[in-house]
Each structure stands twice: as structure tokens, then as C-alpha cells.
Amino acid sequence: MKILLTNDDGYQAVGIQSLFKVLGQKHQVVMVAPDRERSAVSHSITLHHPVRMHRIESGRQKKIYAVDGTPADCVKLGLAECFKTPPDWVIAGINPGSNIGIDINYSGTVGAAREGALNGISGLAASIKLDQVMDYDNLARYVMHMVEAIGEKGLPSGTFLNVNAPGIAFSQIQGIRITRQALNNLSSRFEKRQDPKQRNYYWYGTQEPVSGKPDTDVNAVLQNCLSITPIQCDLTDYKTLAQMPKFSID
What we know:
This protein starts with a strand and ends in a 7-residue tail after the last helix. The radius of gyration is 19 Å and the shape is globular. 42% of the residues are buried. It contains six helices and eleven strands. The strands form two sheets. A nine-stranded mixed sheet has the order 3-4-2-1-5-6-7-11-8, sandwiched between helices. A two-stranded antiparallel ribbon has the order 9-10. By secondary structure, it is of the alpha/beta class.
């Protein structure tokens, strides 16, 4: 299969290098990734200055491109410039840190997979919970197993997969769960500090999830399970859509 590989941590990050190594053993992989870390940029694109892409010289058979833009920029440019025919998959990751709950909305990793789905290409975002063990290579092997199992037929149009592993050795994972997105907001705390002139400034604080409903991505990762959540690009609330005529707002 043909795979466009990207991330939000930069082309030199450990997670994307693991995916490139593992997927490249059996598939045609082109890496188009940011030239530096672009975490938490969600699905943003660059509009107010040119976007530059240059090839990284890593051997004749390796195709690695660095882009001075966002993860979504990388997917857009990769599809336009690096493939004569569309790839079978857009894979983003492996991100160091979970992308679960409401944090899915902020994630550049997830945004890149979503960009693939918006272009009619099967997308997958992969992340590992920050912990003492970050088993990138074995998660990369499982990602390859997943895309091979789904195959070139791919996912339904407008759908991508969000995969999250706990921060433990892959052999110790307690199972695989098909989950829904939790509503836990993990990015709501600020750390308040003062500069030498006694002026306040703020850093986003990290906040570990402590619980989640049984069928959610948060709960699965907390239970040391691997979470797979299908996400759709269509944000329409169809239940409310059907009720809108009752509101007499036309």
C-alpha cells in the first residue's frame, strides 16, 4: 500500500521514525512532516506566509520531506506534490502523549489524520500515554497490522481512527477496546506565575485523567488497554437537525 506519514512533533521525532521504519519494510511510505514541533495546532493551516517543503537526504530509497507548516499543511502538500495517485492511508504519529477526550480537538496529530479523511483517504492517528515506557516500535507494528487488516478498501468516507496506547510495554497491554470519545476536558488548568516585574503570566498545566465512563477512550487507557475510536468529520448534530423546524426560527 501507499502511505503518507506525518506528525506534529517534527520529522526527527522518535515516534514517526518508528512508524517509518516499520511501515517501510512492507509498504511504500512517504514522510511529509513539520520541520519542528507543531503540537496542539489542531487542524490549522498556513494562510499568511508561504509554506516551504524540502527533501531530507536520507538515502536514495527514502522519501522524507520537511515542511515549515502545520500537520494539516503537510498532508495537503504531500497529497499535491508527492503522489501521482492518492495514497491508501494517511497515518499521523506516533505522538508522545495521549490524544483522548476533549483533547482530540486540539491535537495536531488528529488534525492530520482528519485532513486525510477530508480528502477521501483513510486516516489514522496514533499516540502513546506519557509514562516511563514508550513502546513506539511495537505500537508501530500494531498500526501496520491494523491498516493491513482493513486493507486498501479502507474506512468509510469521512471517517478516521484515533488509536491510543497506555505507557507500558506493549506485551503488558490488557486488551484492545473499541471506544467512543470521552468528554473529559484535560486542558483546562493554568499555572499562574510572575515575572521579575511582578506581572502575571500563565502556562497551560498538565492534568491527568482520573476516571472515564466504561466505553470511552479515557477509561480504556486508564485500564492499560489500547483504545481505538472511529471519528467522523461530519460534525452535524442530526438529532437537533431534525428538531430545528419545531423552533420556528425561519
